[in-house]
Design a protein that fits this description.
By secondary structure, the protein is of the alpha/beta class. It has two domains: 157 residues, Rossmann fold (3-Layer(aba) Sandwich), CATH 3.40.50.2020; 126 residues, Rossmann fold, CATH 3.40.50. It contains eight helices and 16 strands. The protein starts with 5 loop residues before the first strand and ends with a helix. The protein binds ribose-5-phosphate. Ribose-5-phosphate (R5P) binds next to strand 13 and helix 6.
């Protein structure tokens, strides 16, 4: 498969992201027709000839996750039936948080997702900042998760005044990301410990008391979903004397009133990448994926 050019198929959830990747790789777009019926079902028709072609299907799996997943399955299945070598490029990979059976009887959602993609003929998958890299081991074909953290750090370093700031990881799971971010912006970092009650969802945060009086904090996480984690971290930071807070994340899922809750907790801005298109997508990270694809040869 090496030395053969890629083609890009822009999935309905990631049209702009796909255009950007196609431009950077100087690829042709696959011709197709996509529509949704009034009852919400998806329709996909492949128009291009794809036999023997390497096709990058760009489709982020953000809410409505099942709908976007079904679109990816239809597209991949048809492409593979027609003889293409299918790469699923999911800037945000929904269902990746459940990579273990935390409570007996729970489904390992990520494992099932990997099986569905394999069934659909996907031969290679790339996402960004998967929730836990251990999860990649559940996918039985080559799967990669380069990080967008350096790109976010570069943005913050160039566009913000980071003097007198501290970088904060709201939990142990994001500590490596926060540490890398802190090193790139040249600031110290703090790591909190978060415990989530597996039945009620209630969050508790443990931290070492320090005097952060008058400083600014950047709370760095892989994703913001309900905003509960950022709100909890912001309350702790306020109690330690922090005067200004910004939340930085790769994937801004922002369900329900997450943005308002975060604002009400004293966080003045949210800086996110464009893996999910939102009003907070200030940083284009398509180059991280394009650069990874260039290495595939
Ligand atoms: C979990 O450990 C993740 O890294 C995020 O902290 C979490 O998924 C964010 O979710 P929420 O915004 O609902 O707290």
């Amino acid at each position: 498969m090496s030395n053969q050019e890629f083609q890009v198929l822009p999935g309905p959830s990631s049209v702009l992201f796909a255009r950007s990747i196609a431009k950077q790789l100087n690829c042709e777009m696959v011709d197709m027709e996509f529509k949704e019926f009034t009852d919400g079902e998806n329709y996909f028709r492949l128009i291009s000839e794809v036999v023997g072609k390497r096709v990058l299907v760009i489709q982020s799996l953000y809410p409505p996750v099942d709908h976007h997943l079904m679109q990816l399955i239809f597209i991949s299945k048809k492409l593979s039936e027609e003889g293409a070598f299918v790469y699923a490029i999911c800037p945000y990979l929904g269902y990746s948080r459940q990579h273990k059976e935390y409570l007996t009887g729970e489904v390992m959602s990520l494992k099932t997702l990997g099986q569905l993609l394999a069934f659909s003929g996907v031969k290679h998958m790339i996402t960004l900042d998967i929730h836990n890299v251990e999860g990649l081991g559940l996918i039985k074909f080559p799967a990669f998760s380069p990080s967008a953290i350096p790109t976010l750090a570069e943005y913050v370093k160039n566009c913000e005044d980071v003097s007198n700031s501290i970088i904060v990881s709201p939990d142990l799971g994001s500590s490596a990301r926060a540490e890398a971010f802190a090193e790139l912006v040249g600031r110290p970092y703090l790591i909190f410990e978060k415990e989530r009650d597996r039945f009620t969802g209630e969050l508790k945060m443990k931290f070492t008391s320090s005097n952060l009086s008058g400083s600014k904090a950047y709370i760095v996480d892989d994703m913001i979903s309900t905003g509960g984690t950022i709100v909890k971290a912001a309350k702790v930071l306020s109690s330690l004397g922090v005067k200004e807070m910004t939340a930085v994340c790769v994937h801004a899922i922002m369900v329900a009133d997450a943005a308002n809750r975060i604002k009400a907790a004293g966080v003045s801005s949210i800086i996110a990448s464009n893996t999910i298109p939102t009003e907070f997508s200030k940083v284009d990270v398509s180059k991280v994926i394009a650069d990874h694809i260039k290495l595939l040869g």
